[in-house]
Amino acid sequence: MTSQNSRNLRLTRQIDEIIDVNISNERFGVSELADKMNMSRSNLHRKIKGTTGDSVSQYLRKVRLYKAMELLKEQSLTVSEVAFAVGFGSVNYFSKCFKDYFGYPPVEVDGSEEIPGTTRYFQKKNNELKNFPVQTTSFIGREKEINTIIDLVYQHRIVSLIGSGGCGKTRLACQVVSKLEKEYKDDIWFVNLAPVESGELVAKELLNTLGIAEVPGKAILEVLIEKIKDKRLLLLLDNCEHLLSACAELSAKLIRTTPGVSIMTTSRKALNINGEKAWLISPLSLVDPEAITDLEYTNKSEAVRLFADRALFNNPGFKLVNENSKDVASVCQKVDGIPLAVELVASRTKYMDVKTMISRFDGRLAEISSMDPQTVERHKTLEATIEWSYYLLNEEEKALFRSLSVFAGGFDLDAAEEICSSEVLPKENVLDVLSGLIDNCLVQTVYTEDRKMRYILLETLRQYGSKILSEKKENQEISKKYLEYFISLSEKAYDERMTSQAQWLNKMQLEHNNMLAALRWAENNETGKFQRLAANLSWFWGRSNDYSMAIEILESVIASKIEDKETHARLNTGYGALHTTTGEFQKSLDLFKYGLSLWQELKNKKEEALMLASLSELLHGMGDDEAGMKYSRESYELAVQLNDPVVELNSMIIVTYGLVCAKKTSEARPMIRKALKMAVELENLYLIFVSHHMLGDCALMDGIYIESEREYGMGLETTLQYGDTSYTCTEMLGVAMSVAGQERYSKALRLNANATRSAVSFGSWIPEEIPIVFWHEMVVKLIHGSREKLGEELTNQYEEQGRAMSFDEAVKYALSSEID
């Protein structure tokens, strides 16, 4: 063979391999092949034309047709299935092309005849995938996982792909091993264990798959080992979960006795044998529907790409566009990015648009069934797949799985033990049973930022568990325990909100969805506890970014008859603080004054001192410095009597705030630094922020603009730690005024414009409109002054640039002191 012929053969083999991998993808054409070959279209055309005499499109069609002939000869697929398997979107067009090339229609293919013509267009590989299911759709995503699993196969002789039902274990395994054909001279064998009902039949199924005859008088496993002990092959044991013991025993034996054999398994649970490397298959990646700005961002989601591909397969008129991208991303999120569910939902685009699908099936997407009559029963719906997993559990595992469905947004071990223990499942057994659910891929584990383990049920699993819980009439009892647990947690958080603020802000953020779920249940079942839980949460809502939702909840509580006076006092305190955040200062003042009277009636001096401090801060913000100073002095005197360092610090900061409002910066500055040191020691994020903010105020009024930029920046970073975007926007304006003082006018106007736009979107006060006297004077001097310096045209240009930034981009810009 000449060197030129050798190069041509290598080229056609490489092209054939690429087409083979993508053959089911109807959209894989000339451009896609050129990209895979790292060639231009014209160069690829010259290469293929010179080697085969065909154009690229002709060559692609021939490869597809020869593959179709090969599949038809096996006589296991219909003409329609073959057409889709080789990338033809239309069966009629496929039949026409087939007849034009081979001289007769595909329905007349005889399995015994030789494939006519030369086989150079579809060269059979020396190593093959044996008994593998033919894929009639393209494979989407998981590129990194494929490479990782291939590396694992090279390093370990047995690799198990584990995951919950419908996560795509079989399809991924097939895709991985298709890239390993050259590694196993005796082929790669697919062993379908789904229909095998007994562990005793596993070895026999493997023997049958490999085409090995039984030997009378010899054990099946002995015959199997004898026949493959010198082979170099890979066995893919698919769907092992209902035959775990038998699969584990067989695999362990083969690994010990057949050195050339490697094994890959798919299962909802690992085999747990020596040498096994288990790899958890996660759902497909998602994007936040609310964060979508364009199709490029949307297509970062593997689930969205799969949905779009399957929707187009079922409805040629479907197209992913900006107008439907959020709805598609939302559907994918609602089914947790589980491939089976995404495909089932996407199939319904043949009958309805995505928005209609959400309105009709929201909360029941897991019940959407396959339209394919050949689909196995457990894959007809996602719910059927989950049900298959559920009935493989023992009774304790079933009981815990049902109880865990009460949680919204995850849980920790303490919560699971307290809420889910029962006569059936003692508290001391919860951890062991929970471990079993994790092994069965029904519960996922994640680590929090402080490296504590947290547990999560995917939403589709949670919905199924909740359905079974209701059917067994266990939901009322578990919901009561759930409510009691989170009321108790919220009580502790409220009592320690000043002394352990950072810890509780993090904890409450983690448990927020659980708190809301408990609230929803209590609203319809336990009115007094609903009021108490809402009151306990009100302080947290004032430090987070959930203002509109919180106000809506608290308004409904305030409007109801509240019999417990302390609950009423807590509600007025928290509700008033929320209205401060949204800029409704007079309403806040009325609520605070009523709250103060309630605390005084209750003779709760600590809460009275804190309420006086809040009143003082509010009145300074409203421009009434005289009344503000009066309340701050009363608060401080009371705090000193209590001998409570945290309450005393809070009151001292408010007294200092009065000095700042009075522009007594030299007197205020040393007190603020002392307060900052104490706040850091106490890890009180809010007081740390306030201290940095006031130091920024002092520097700004004194014209020390580099210092004020630094202090406001540190305040901004602190607000990010506990998620208070209203104050983040305020600090952004502080930075804007500071850079304006440095004559960096363009940055000042960009930041102020973004702070205003962001504050409006968050529903909080507009920083530029805060009525504090000195703040207003600084805004006029530095922000209005910047507009005058630059003129109307440049002002509009820079402010438009600022509004065009995302909130996160603006925050990063504000903290980048070296960038204008």
Can you lay out the helices and strands and say which pair or pack?
Layout: H1 3-21, H2 30-37, H3 41-52, H4 56-74, H5 79-85, H6 91-102, E1 129-130, H7 143-155, E2 158-162, H8 169-177, E3 188-192, H9 202-210, H10 220-228, E4 233-238, H11 244-257, E5 261-267, E6 276-280, H12 295-298, H13 302-314, H14 322-334, H15 339-347, H16 354-361, H17 382-390, H18 395-404, H19 413-420, H20 430-439, E7 444-447, E8 453-456, H21 459-471, H22 475-495, H23 501-510, H24 512-525, H25 527-541, H26 547-558, H27 565-581, H28 585-602, H29 605-621, H30 625-642, H31 645-661, H32 665-682, H33 685-701, H34 705-722, H35 725-741, H36 745-762, H37 773-804, H38 807-815
Parallel strand pairs: 1-3, 2-5, 2-6, 3-4, 4-5
Antiparallel strand pairs: 7-8
Give an overview of the whole structure.
The chain is mostly helical. It is 63% helix and 5% strand. The protein has a 6-stranded parallel β-sheet with strand order 1-3-4-5-2-6, with helices on both faces. Strands 7-8 form a two-stranded antiparallel ribbon. The radius of gyration is 34 Å and the shape is globular. About 1% of the residues have low confidence.
